[in-house]
Predict the structure of Aminoglycoside phosphotransferase family protein.
Amino acid sequence: MGSMEDGILHSIVDIAIKDLSPAAQAAQRQVVEIGSAHIVVLLHGAAAVRIGRDPRMNVEMRKRQELVDSIPVSIGFHVPRSLGPAVTLNEFSAVAVELVPGSPCPAGEGEPSELQDLLARMSSIPTEPISGLLAEPLAFCGGPEWYRIQREEVLPRLKQEVQRQAMDAIWALVNLEPVKEVFAHGDLGGHNVFWEGGRMSGVLDWDLSSRSDLSTDLACVGVWNGWKQLSLIANAAEVRRASVRRNTFRLQQLAFAILHERPPAEIDRAVSRANSWFEKQSF
């Protein structure tokens, strides 16, 4: 797996924005470390450039950007649509995209009616026209192989004292009763949802979008905006399903770190967070 030096990073930004306005090309740059998969370079007031950290994900990155560009304008909020083609330098891919106005709301906040509207709009996106652009459910932690990876790679790394709780959480997700599938963003919380003036303004990072059920996005909203809010925006059955998904989040994050061969210190931190989370839970 390659690694990205500052020189390569700014060179690929130059290539990605070569057809943008002179003002955009001259704009002040700010490198933002966003998540484990991407780096974002903000061009002050003009655009953003999204760069994949892992050369192995270039094809998927291009596919997901095509998905973003296919989101209907009628969705009613901003998404980071392309301002030019995806480009490649030294195996790394990048694409210039529109800025999404606003900023993330603090953890535990977010107007319930806005969150409910966001979930309704997201789940209303037609999946048939974009089926070939969607990720596999649970792609973040292995997709179709997620259960095997949890059993063989994740559980053995946890403290013996929490392995039974972790296995129960995994098994609950395996046995979650199928319900109607809809479009699911897959990471609908934290720094991916922007707000302006108390209203939701836009959504970033559509890499995990898939056909799933409402509980996928509901769980993410609950973790960031507050679990107590869920009873105001979903029924009891949906909240129960969301809790099943939430209970595996730390395990999914650990699986991601393992699968993407993150540095040992990062994997150790993911193990520690998973151990700590299960030690505090009583299912």
Observations:
- The chain has a mean pLDDT of 93.
- The longest strand covers residues 29-34.
- The first helix runs from residue 6 to 16.
